[in-house]
Amino acid sequence: MKTKSKLEKVLESGQFAVTGELGPPASAAPEVIKRKAKYLKGNVDAVNVTDGQTAVARMASWAACLLGKEEGLEPTVQMTCRDRNRIALQMDILGIAALGINNLLCLTGDHQAFGNHPTAKGVYDLDSIQLIKMVKDMRDEKKFQCGDEMDVEPRIFIGAAANPFADPFEFRVLRLANKVAAGADFIQTQIIYNVEKFARWMEAIREKGLHEKVKILAGVAPIKSVGAARYMQTKVPGMDVPDAVVDQLRSVPKEEVSKEGIKVCVEIINQVREIKGVAGIHLMAIEWEEIVPEIVEQAGLLPRPQVS
Amino acid sequence: MLTTKQKPLEQILEYLDGENSVFLVGCQGCAEGCHTGGEQEILDMKQRLEEAGKTIAGISLIDFMCNDNLVRMTLQAHEDRIIDADSLLALCCGIGVQATSAVVDKLVHPGCNTVSMGGRHGEWREGERCMECGDCVLEFTGGICPVARCAKMLLNGPCGGSVDGKCEISPDISCAWQQIIERLSKLGRLDKLERIVAPKDWSVSLMAGSASQR
Hints:
The complex is a heterodimer of chains A (308) and B (214).
Chain A: H1 6-12, E1 17-22, H2 30-40, E2 46-49, H3 61-70, E3 75-80, H4 86-98, E4 103-107, H5 128-140, E5 157-162, H6 169-182, E6 186-191, H7 195-207, E7 215-220, H8 226-235, H9 243-250, H10 257-273, E8 278-283, H11 292-298
Parallel strand pairs in A: 1-2, 1-8, 2-3, 3-4, 4-5, 5-6, 6-7, 7-8
Chain B: E1 3-6, H1 9-15, E2 21-27, H2 30-33, H3 39-51, E3 55-62, H4 68-76, H5 79-84, E4 87-91, H6 94-103, E5 107-110, E6 112-116, H7 146-149, E7 166-167, E8 170-174, H8 176-186
Parallel strand pairs in B: 2-3, 2-4, 4-5
Antiparallel strand pairs in B: 1-6, 7-8
Helix pairs in contact in B: 4-6
C-alpha cells in the first residue's frame, strides 16, 4: 500500500468501490456537514468534499473533510488550481496529510467566471497534471516542487478527474495517459448519462492498458427533475445528457420524476459495472445526499467492505 | 518595441532534436532592434546550428513578423526550401512565431522568449496573442499560445470544459487547446503532447509583477 487510505485498500482488494460526494455549506455551519455525513457513513467507501465547486465561495474542503472524518467518514479532499499557487497548494497538502486525511483529488477547477465572484483573479499557477506530479514527488521523492527535501512526506492516495464527454474525444485518452504518467492512483469521471459513449472511451482506455495502471471510478448522479436534466443538457460544459434520459423523466407524472431519476441512476450503475476496467463508481448526489443509502441499496452495493 | 531575448542554444538544440534540416526566419522589426532576430543574429544562429551538425534549408528575413499577411507573402517565395525542411526556427516575439505557424504546415520552434511588448501588440490584430511571459511555450503547443488564449492558461490542456471547439466560459471564445490539438494533428506531431510540460517559471513574467528583473 502506498498510503493508509481505506479507499486504496478497497480498490487494491479488487472489490467494487463506491465513493460519494459532500458539498460543504456556503457558511460556517458545521452541523450541515454532520447531517450530510449521516447519509454517507457506511454507504460509501470514501467521500469527496468539493473545493468551491462552480467557483462559489464555500467552507474549505480540508476543514469540511476534518469535520466529516470526526463523523466517521473516509474523506477525500478536492483541490483545485484556481485559487492557490504552488506554495499554497503544497502547504495545504502537508496540512491535510498531518490531519490524517489520506485521499486527494487533483483538479484544475471550474473557471471563476461561473461563480459568485466573477471578478476574482484566477490563479492557475499549475494545472491539474502538474499538481498530480507535484503531490507524487512530495510523497514518493520527499521533494517540494522547487526540489527542496522534506523530512516527513505526505502519504496521499492521488486522484484525478477525467471527462470522457469533453472534446476532442480522441485526445481524452492521451490526456488520461498523461495523468497516469504524472502519478494518478485513481480516476473519477464526469457524470455518465451517455453509457454508450463512456463504453467507447473505456475501450480506448483498455487498448492502451491504462485500466491496469489506474483505478477508474465511473461518475454517476441521480437527476431530481426534468428542469435539472435540461439544465445539465444545455448549460453545463462537458456534460452529455442524451434525449432518451430526458424523455424517460418526462414520461412519468411530475411527482414521480425524482423516483424515476433514481431508477435511471441505478440502471446506469448496473450498466457501467459490466464494463471491463471499471473499478467502482463515484456517486455525486450533491445537495441530495439523503438519497445515497437508497441508491446504493437498490444497486446491490451494500454492505460496504470492512477495511481497517 | 516588443522586447525579446534569445533562448539558450542548448534549449533550441533540444527542440531540434531528431531533426536535420531547419529553415530560419528572422524579424527586421523589433527583434532586429533587440539584437535577437535581425540579419546578424540569423547569420550567427546559422553558423552555430551548422557547427552543431544541422543543415540550414534556407533563411528569410521579414520586416514585421507580427504581420501575418506579410509573413505569408514572404514565406511563399521560399516554399520549395520550406517543404524540404524538417521545421522552422523563428527568431522573433511570440506573435511572430504564431503568425509563422499559422501560414506554414510545419512545426515552428520559438527561438526567443518575449519579455516585454512595451505597450505594443504587434501588427496582427484580432485579440491577444502574447502575454510577454518570458518563457515561451510555443514549442509544445503547435505555435498557438495557451498562456494568452486559454482561460485557465493550461500548459497541459484541454480542461474538461472544452466542447464543440468552444471554451467553457463562453460560446464566443474558441478553445485554444482544441486549436492546438487540431494544428498538431495536421502536422502529425501529437507526440508533442505526450510529454508533461513542467510548472512554468513565472518569475520572468510581467504578469508576476516582477518587472524589476528587466
